[in-house]
TrEMBL record:
This is Phosphoribosylformylglycinamidine cyclo-ligase. Belongs to the AIR synthase family. Signal peptide: none annotated. It is found in: Cytoplasm.
Length: 368
């Protein structure tokens, strides 16, 4: 008689899943305020939305995302908690650009084999990111996919919901000529462009444990630096500065393309490349792969993770407030009337289906 076929024998270990839940419970609980009802293990997360009754016209904002091929670096190094912070940043910082406060988040982890400690590390990172963002982690799912994914493979995704008062909504309709364009520094590469970065690393023969003097740490440590989470700071800035008109989260497509998404037709934003010193990792990638500068800046954030467009009278105070909140900021340029000049590599018009104004890049990057 042949051996009986079991779920565990088919490659799914439910006991390992239960152990992972036990290991992550305390980290998840730290993101819960009194608005969260119940706890981990429920079929659905519950959040008391009674506070929304005080809104005149509450608008719900939602976003979903992952962290791309940065996961390959995490797997190679065996470091998995930073990926969770990346996931939170990629989701909640997309929500906050419209002025919304992220309220709740859920996550999804697919893997070839549940290793409880690894799953718990990922979720601990997500929970830490949610604490930074002031967002409750109210649910999640871990799915084991033997035969579809290799045992050490995994991928993560997340979704969040936030709320903003309708008359406080930020966006292109508030942007006007004379506004100032402010950059808020990134923490590094963030979570975009890693297919390019990994290809350059392979071409250059970089070892992840090699120390690079220009970086002040190893290649692996630099590549795994978590994406900066701007949500709480941006919520505070929106509340303090009525002249804050729009925000752009600089993700896939690079700086110019993402800023172009918040510029209305007929206007243009200037970006002076020499207004900041390019962080070393970007110049290192460019040099090691002989990457054309235009390709580099249309892929990576170039040291700018969030952009604010603000009324001129509030610009200096907003820059100072960002710095006081732990995020260096500086003036990139200003909003002007779009002169309609022919597009060139230094001009970007529209991105990701948005037809709007233009972004004009000028000058050359200052290298550190």
């Amino acid at each position: 008689m042949s051996e009986p076929i079991t779920y565990a024998g088919a490659g799914v270990d439910t006991e390992a899943g239960d152990k992972a839940v036990e290991l992550m419970k305390s980290a998840v609980a730290r993101t819960h305020g009194p608005e969260v009802l119940g706890g981990i293990g429920a079929f659905a997360g519950l959040f008391d939305a009674s506070a929304l009754k005080d809104y005149r016209r509450p608008l719900l904002a939602s976003s979903t995302d992952g962290v791309g091929t940065k996961i390959v670096i995490a797997r190679q190094l065996g470091v998995h908690d930073t990926i969770g912070k990346d996931l939170v940043a990629m989701v909640v910082d997309d929500i906050v650009v419209c002025g919304a406060k992220p309220l709740v988040m859920t996550d999804y982890i697919a893997c070839g084999k549940v290793v409880p400690e690894r799953i718990a590390d990922i979720v601990r990172g997500i929970a830490e990111g949610c604490e930074i963002a002031g967002t409750a982690l109210v649910g999640g799912e871990t799915a084991e996919h033997p035969g579809v994914m290799e045992p050490d493979d995994y991928d993560v995704a997340g979704a969040a919901i936030g709320v903003v008062e309708a008359d406080a909504l930020l966006g292109p309709d508030r942007v006007a000529a004379g506004d100032v364009v402010v950059a808020m520094a990134s923490s590094g590469l963030h979570s975009n462009g890693y297919s390019l970065v990994r290809r350059v690393a392979e071409h250059a023969g970089w070892s992840l444990d090699n120390h690079v003097d220009d970086l002040g740490r190893t290649v692996g440590q630099e590549l795994l630096e978590p994406t900066r989470i701007y949500a709480s700071l941006c919520v505070d800035l929106a509340a303090r500065f009525g002249g804050l008109h729009a925000l752009s989260h600089v993700t896939g497509g690079g700086l110019a393309a993402n800023v172009a998404r918040i510029i209305p037709a007929g206007l243009a934003a200037s970006v002076a490349r020499d207004s900041w010193t390019l962080p070393p990792v970007f110049a290192l990638v460019q040099k090691a792969g002989a990457v054309p500068w235009h390709d580099l800046e249309s892929t990576l954030n170039m040291g700018v993770g969030m952009v604010a467009i603000v009324a001129a009278e509030d610009a200096d105070a907003l820059v100072a407030a960002s710095a006081a909140g732990g995020v260096p900021a500086w003036v990139l340029g200003e909003i002007t009337i779009d002169d309609g000049r022919i597009a060139s590599p230094d001009t970007v018009r529209g991105a990701k289906g948005v037809t709007g104004g233009a972004v004009n890049l000028s000058g050359a990057y200052r290298l550190g």
